[in-house]
């Protein structure tokens, strides 16, 4: 397109150039009211204009070239209203039929003439409302009025995609949006359509039925090369409805129902299939459901590579919204590209709550991550004043060994300000490398082993309920004398079992040798197991989704506990109060005698005697010292003396300490679009090695565990199978027949 002023040489077109024409623009003048003509001003010609060029966007470009400021009102006048001319679909520029041999005459004005002309004087172009009519007028007015203002509807993706309506002249922001609208129309109307022409510049869609005349054609505008405009549209369908549509594929279904999966990640196949029948009257296959769910999950969570690339930004946002929190990322280098290895997170609210309100005992545990890139989740969990778990820190590492545990504990030691290891106790499951890591970093601390895991190793060689009860009896013994009695009984039952246990230091697994300062006598690492169970749904998610689900769980848990504490009816928590009430019931078989100086002698139904010092809060059975809650012997003295048992409970269980633990707030994070851009080199995800077979989701149960799925039959463990044919042990009738067959 070229600009030509009045008086310059006129442009001539060849016969082969029928699609090009000259556009004449009148401006900087005024209209004659009597003759309804444009008078004065200037005339500018635009040669070599393509028919597809005519659009409101391109007229704005012409106005700017002529020196005018937007917004403007455009008016056009057509010649040859009575000329009949059939235009090809690909060459149609507007919905009106015009004579291609005549010039298009067009003028425009600034509304109310608020702006100035280029020479500085105000324009005198004024028109009455009766002389010019917009496209909103009647059909009769548009037919007889020579000056008409043209506007074209824009397709709104947010509102119009639900039920697309097409019309000639409608514009779309892109070709992809036009394709989506056509597909949505086909699904809504239950029609089978086909893309007859589908390229970056032109799209023609027709009905699959040969007898149906429905069709639509749109092409790109020449000026911006992005906007699509409908040139031809035949809206009537004469074909029958179909109930099997090729547009109903897994990608489309994933985009359509992404919000359902976002709200309910466990949306099953039955609900999905019923929803699809209600919406489109089509049936879905099981694999189509799997693929659609996978695509929706990718839309919700993003790809795995995208999440690893934004770890730096996520850590920056976490520190910005929760000041004082610790985030540590460790990567290996592949040239200049960092490859993810580990990430450690300790939220400031959890650290402050543990330091001010919890006892000095921490459980450590690791669990598997079940996502595409496998790894281990290491956790540190404390105990709150209501004898419930209190997560402190967590980390995602590549594997569980001494190196990763030492890295985790070094960071935890700095966060919790543990300078003297005498005042801390640990309880673990004897994970790989964890014993050596604790011995190196906390040489003077108490290290307890989970007795449940100890028994799992014990029963491999020494089976039987009696040995199990004897082992647990030795572990729960609170005095050394009681422990010695239980071990002597084990030697009588099984000498080999006794020899196996003598290799295990009792300081790690028996209450008789536990220190009294933690005020906790737990033998199992159940708090860590409970935390791992609480975040089970997060463990198969991509890295940032995994970390965010854990943070959200902790944030909501802290807020919930702050509300619950106001509903307490006593100075201690509900679990502690329930334990006290249970101990009260056990005092029925005890009798106390006063000795003097706040010292009592208590005899139980087993004819054992224990000395209780109420003032110093001690009992010869050591249960009061270990737990911080009066034992059955101390409770007998307290109830006999008509005193309040809660007054003799250690302060670590009181309401004030609970509030100190849960008063700190874990603040929420903004969405990924609001995260700060650190500018660091994006982290690459670790190498993925696909394992053989189907990935295991459920944990492998121990031989003595009962399934939680409501089954009523126990598994046949340790049952000897006898053959009904030969009577031998080790196979059944069917396997025996197979063994007799000789290979060819």
**Major beta sheet, specifics?**
7 strands, mixed
Secondary structural class: alpha+beta
Q: Determine the mean pLDDT.
A: 81
Q: Which parts are unreliable, with pLDDT below 50 for 5 consecutive residues or more?
A: 79-150
User: Based on CA inertia axes, which overall geometry fits?
Assistant: elongated
DSSP strand content: 15-25%
List keywords for this structure.
single chain, 744 residues, alpha+beta, seven-stranded mixed beta sheet, 24 helices, 25 strands, 19% strand
How would you sum up this structure, described in words?
The chain is of the alpha+beta class and 744 residues long. The protein is built from 24 helices and 25 strands. The longest helix is centred in the C-terminal third of the chain and has 22 residues.
Brief write-up:
The chain is 33% helix and 19% strand.
Summarize the SSE layout with pairings.
Elements (H helix, E strand, L loop, with lengths): L1 E4 L14 E8 L2 E3 L4 E3 L2 E9 L5 H10 L7 E5 L26 E6 L23 E2 L4 H6 L2 E3 L7 H4 L10 E2 L2 H15 L3 E6 L3 E6 L7 E6 L7 E7 L15 H7 L1 H6 L5 H12 L5 H16 L2 H6 L1 H11 L4 E9 L2 E10 L1 H10 L3 E9 L5 E9 L5 E9 L4 H14 L9 E4 L5 H8 L4 E4 L1 H11 L3 H12 L3 H14 L1 H8 L23 H9 L8 H22 L9 H13 L4 E6 L2 E5 L5 E5 L4 E2 L3 H5 L4 H9 L14 H8 L70 H8 L4
Parallel strand pairs: 2-7, 8-9, 17-20, 20-21
Antiparallel strand pairs: 1-5, 2-5, 3-4, 6-7, 6-9, 10-14, 11-12, 12-13, 13-14, 15-16, 16-19, 17-18, 18-19, 22-23, 23-24, 24-25
């Amino acid at each position: 397109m070229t600009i030509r002023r009045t008086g310059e040489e006129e442009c001539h077109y060849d016969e082969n150039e029928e699609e090009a024409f000259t556009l004449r623009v009148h401006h900087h003048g005024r209209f004659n009211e009597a003759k309804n003509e444009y008078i004065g001003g200037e005339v500018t010609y635009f040669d070599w204009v393509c028919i597809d060029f005519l659009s409101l966007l391109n007229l704005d470009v012409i106005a700017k070239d002529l020196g005018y400021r937007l917004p403007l009102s455009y008016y056009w006048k057509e010649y040859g209203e009575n000329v009949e001319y059939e235009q090809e679909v690909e060459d149609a520029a507007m919905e009106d039929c015009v004579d291609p041999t005549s010039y298009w005459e067009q003028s425009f004005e600034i509304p109310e003439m608020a702006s100035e002309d280029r020479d500085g004087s105000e324009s005198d172009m004024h028109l009455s409302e009766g002389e010019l009519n917009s496209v909103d007028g009647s059909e009769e007015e548009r037919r007889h009025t020579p000056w008409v203002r043209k506007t074209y509807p824009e397709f709104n993706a947010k509102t119009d995609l639900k039920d697309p309506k097409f019309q000639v002249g409608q514009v779309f922001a892109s070709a992809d949006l036009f394709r989506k609208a056509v597909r949505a129309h086909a699904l809504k109307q239950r029609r089978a359509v086909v893309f007859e022409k589908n390229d970056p510049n032109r799209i023609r869609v027709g009905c699959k039925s040969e007898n149906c005349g429905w069709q639509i054609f749109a092409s790109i505008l020449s000026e911006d090369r992005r906007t699509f405009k409908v040139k031809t549209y035949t809206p009537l369908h004469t074909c029958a409805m179909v109930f099997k549509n090729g547009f109903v594929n897994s990608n489309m279904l994933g985009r359509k129902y992404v919000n359902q999966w976002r709200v309910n990640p466990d949306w099953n196949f039955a609900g999905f299939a019923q929803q699809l029948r209600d919406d489109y009257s089509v049936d879905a296959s099981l694999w189509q459901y799997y693929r659609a769910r996978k695509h929706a999950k990718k839309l919700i969570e993003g790809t795995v590579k995208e999440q690893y690339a934004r770890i730096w930004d996520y850590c920056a946002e976490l520190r910005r919204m929760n000041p004082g929190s610790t985030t540590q990322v460790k990567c290996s280098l592949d040239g200049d590209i960092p490859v993810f290895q580990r990430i450690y997170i300790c939220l400031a609210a959890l650290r402050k709550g543990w330091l001010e309100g919890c006892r000095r005992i921490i459980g450590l545990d690791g669990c598997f991550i079940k996502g595409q890139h496998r790894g281990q989740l290491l956790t540190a969990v404390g105990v709150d004043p209501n004898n419930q778990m209190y997560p402190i820190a967590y980390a995602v590492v590549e594997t569980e060994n001494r190196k990763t545990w030492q890295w985790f504990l070094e960071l935890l030691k700095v966060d919790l300000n543990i300078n003297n290891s005498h005042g801390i106790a640990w309880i673990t499951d004897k994970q790989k490398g964890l014993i050596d890591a604790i011995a190196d970093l906390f040489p003077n601390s108490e290290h307890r082993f989970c007795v449940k895991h100890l028994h799992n190793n014990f029963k491999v060689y020494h089976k039987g309920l009696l040995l199990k009860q004897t082992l647990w009896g030795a572990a729960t013994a609170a005095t050394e004398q009681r422990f010695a009695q239980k071990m002597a009984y084990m030697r009588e039952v099984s000498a080999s079992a006794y020899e196996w246990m003598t290799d295990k230091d009792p300081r790690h697994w028996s209450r008789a040798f536990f220190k009294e300062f933690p005020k906790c006598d737990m033998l199992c690492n159940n708090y860590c197991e409970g935390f791992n169970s609480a975040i089970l749904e997060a463990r198969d998610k991509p890295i940032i989704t995994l970390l965010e689900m854990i943070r959200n769980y902790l944030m909501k848990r802290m807020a919930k506990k702050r509300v619950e504490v106001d509903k307490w009816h006593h100075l201690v928590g509900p679990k502690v109060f329930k334990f006290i009430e249970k101990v009260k019931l056990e005092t029925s078989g005890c009798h106390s005698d006063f000795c003097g100086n706040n010292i009592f002698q208590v005899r139980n139904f087993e004819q054992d005697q224990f000395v209780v010092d109420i003032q110093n809060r001690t009992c010869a059975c050591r249960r009061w010292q270990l737990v911080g809650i009066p034992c059955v012997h101390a409770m007998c003295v307290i109830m006999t003396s008509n005193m309040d048992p809660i007054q003799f409970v250690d302060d670590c269980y009181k309401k004030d300490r609970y509030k100190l633990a849960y008063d700190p707030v874990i603040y929420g994070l903004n969405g990924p679009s609001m995260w700060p851009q650190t500018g660091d080199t994006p982290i690459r995800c670790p190498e993925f090695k696909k394992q053989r077979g189907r990935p295991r989701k459920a944990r492998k149960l121990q031989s003595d565990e009962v399934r939680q799925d409501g089954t009523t039959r126990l598994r046949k463990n340790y049952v000897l199978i006898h053959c009904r044919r030969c009577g031998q042990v080790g196979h059944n009738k069917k396997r025996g027949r197979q063994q007799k067959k000789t290979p060819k």
